[in-house]
TrEMBL record:
Function: Molecular chaperone. Has ATPase activity.
Name by which UniProt lists this protein: Chaperone protein HtpG
InterPro entries for this protein: HATPase_C_sf, HATPase_dom, Heat_shock_protein_90_CS, HSP90_C, Hsp90_fam, Hsp90_N, Ribosomal_Su5_D2-typ_SF
Localization (cell): Cytoplasm
Length: 616
């Protein structure tokens, strides 16, 4: 590797981020130090883990620490660690570019934040290093990777380019030296070479860091792991700052969960439910949010063995006392103790949300508004806790146009003799409320759940019942809402319309599997329903979009015998004037009424136009 100084340009996104930082869009510039200390802490964690995993890596782990060095005369502040360090390629890759998912969204939020008081977005995508340029007009980074013979020095004034060169004498670890801007109190730019100011920032943001943070040889953080401290000894702001540290979120958590197990298998857990969904919640490479420690030693980020995928938004730390320190992801998947921890954590999270629902409805509403979809994933993925998840779900219903309902509340309002929980799936509430399938239920006062999330069509097919009451789609199978008197009258109509039903079944044989009279219609002429065990159109569309090859699914056309159009068709057919085009139009109108798509829209328009011409 050449020792000559090389000048490079930042990647476009990194250059834009630098521009925003240099122009100081944040009122609270103190957080730059939080970010640099967090990076140093991560580097120390990684060194210890690497030393456990790689027995050939001979590193001295004595005296691992973070050092802060202030020089008031030179106007510099240095953050130094003796952690894992970086190679030349890592420096270029991690600092010269932003190779993180969600970069475009991050920059958009940064630009929006220019008009806000203090959005505190820094660190959300691991780009906290750039925050240095809020307070420094030049940054020099010197680093050497553990096990490497030489280091590298990086320097930039934040103006679109940086220089990089070899640093043969660099010690192991990373040193970031900030050449501080002049103090400007009006712009909230304080004297960051002042020891009292440095201590204030460390105490506020980084007191929980487990590594010693030293200033002039004095350790200025308490170092005790937050999850190991007494509940009475930790304030809410400390919990909130720790959450921001591990999650890279900029808001306070919605809920904090403490858990401690003692006895034959000991562990401590500190979990957080965020107040808002992370941007990568539904990205393919979304990561779990729980860190694993063993005996206070960091083992891994994003430990998916500790939390099921549907709870991937939960952030936190689990510190186990009895696991091997060289545990791997593969071993974790099979480890009985980890499985026991996972079961306990899941039940604790679900119990916390249940308590939230009962005691803090506004907070629960925030939770459900952010995390309804992943929780519904749990109804499909977590059979063991399916009943508990159902208890904390809420859904729109015809009972209240504004407030969703829990299934327990729905059950409490069920009519005497009602044996099913009725629901309808669709794309919007308005479409479902105006659906012909709803007419008899509305007329007879039966409450119907309105499920407009695509995943609703999947879980509701997989979950058999709630509280002993089976779920029943009002757009599938037969509907039994009639009184005994209405049922006797219906039997007479079956005989009266038998000829029309048989003729329509034959005429529309390519589109439907059966034509029958309906007990669910009061004002519409017809509707289309699925057979009891067939896929709904919504679910069929999802499966086809995912590439599954399904056979054609024919559905059932139901007629309202009291509608003038149906009565007219019966009379015409009985007199030998069966009108195939009218039958086709009736089917097409029923399909459109439920939000379906016509196979041949041009033909439908042609038929409607022809009928209008005949009527003029």
């Amino acid at each position: 590797m050449s020792t000559a100084t090389e000048t490079r340009e930042f990647q476009t996104e990194a250059r834009e981020l630098l521009r925003l930082m240099v122009h100081s869009i944040y009122s609270n510039k103190d957080i730059f130090l939080r970010e640099l200390i967090s990076n140093a802490s991560d580097a120390l964690d990684k060194l210890r883990l690497e030393a456990y995993r790689d027995k050939d890596l001979e590193v001295d782990q004595a005296g691992l620490r973070i050092e802060l060095e202030a020089d008031a005369q030179a106007r510099t502040l240095t953050v130094r660690d003796n952690g894992i360090g970086m190679t030349r390629d890592e420096v270029v890759g991690l600092i010269g570019t932003i190779a993180k998912s969600g970069t475009a969204e991050y920059l958009r939020k940064l630009k929006e934040a220019q008009n806000t008081q203090d959005a505190e977005l820094i660190g959300q995508f691991g780009v906290g290093f750039y925050s240095s340029f809020m307070v420094a007009d030049k940054v020099t980074l010197t680093t050497r990777r553990a096990g490497a013979d030489a280091g590298v020095r990086w320097e930039s004034a934040g103006e679109g380019t940086y220089t990089i060169e070899d640093a043969p004498d660099a010690p192991r670890g990373t040193e970031v030296r900030l050449h501080l801007k002049p103090v400007d109190a009006e712009d909230h730019l304080y004297d960051y070479s002042e020891p009292a100011k440095i201590k204030e920032i460390v105490k506020r943001y980084s007191d929980f860091i487990t590594w010693p943070i030293q200033l002039d040889g004095e350790t200025v953080n308490s170092r005790k792991a937050l999850w190991a401290r007494s509940r009475d000894d930790v304030g809410e702001e400390e919990y909130a700052e720790f959450y921001r540290h591990i999650s890279h979120d900029w808001t306070d958590p919605l809920e904090t969960i403490r858990l401690q197990a003692e006895g034959t298998f000991e562990y401590q857990a500190l979990l957080f439910i965020p107040a808002r969904a992370p941007l990568d919640l539904f990205m393919r490479d979304a990561k779990a949010g729980v860190q694993l420690y063993v005996k206070r030693v960091f083992i891994m980020d994003d430990c998916d063995a500790l939390m099921p995928e549907y709870l991937r938004f939960v952030k936190g730390v689990v510190d186990a006392a009895d696991l091997s320190l060289n545990v791997s992801r593969e071993i974790l998947q099979q480890d009985r103790q980890i499985q026991l921890i996972r079961r306990r954590l899941v039940k604790k999270v679900l119990a916390t949300v249940k308590t939230m629902l009962a005691e803090e409805p506004d907070k629960y509403a925030t939770f459900w508004g952010q995390f309804a979809r992943p929780m519904k994933e749990g109804l499909l993925a977590d059979q063991e806790n399916q009943a508990q998840i159902l208890e904390i779900c809420s859904f729109a219903s015809t009972h209240d146009a504004e407030r969703p309902t829990t299934l327990a509340d729905y059950a409490s309002r069920m009519k005497d003799g009602q044996e099913h929980i009725y629901y309808l799936t669709g794309e919007t509430r308005a479409a479902m409320e105006n659906s012909p399938h709803m007419e008899a239920f509305r007329a007879k006062g039966f409450e119907v759940l309105l499920l407009d999330d695509p995943i609703d069509g999947m879980w509701v097919e997989a979950v058999p019942e709630f509280g002993g009451k089976p779920f029943q789609s009002i757009a599938k199978g037969q509907v039994d809402l009639d009184s005994e008197e209405e049922k006797r009258a219906a039997q007479g109509r079956e005989e009266e319309f038998a000829g029309l039903l048989a003729w329509l079944t034959e005429t529309l044989g390519e589109q439907v599997k059966q034509v029958r009279l309906s007990s669910r219609l009061t004002t519409s002429a017809a509707c289309i329903v699925s057979d009891s065990h067939d896929l709904t159109p919504t679910l069929e569309k999802i499966y086809r979009a995912s590439g599954q090859d399904l056979p054609p699914i024919k559905r059932i056309l139901e007629l309202n015998p009291g509608h003038p159009l149906v009565a007219g068709l019966r009379t015409a057919q009985a007199e030998g004037r069966g009108d195939a085009e009218a039958a086709e139009l009736l089917y097409s109108l029923a399909l459109l009424a439920e939000g379906g798509e016509l196979a041949d829209p041009a033909r439908f328009v042609k038929l409607v136009t022809s009928r209008l011409e005949q009527g003029l």
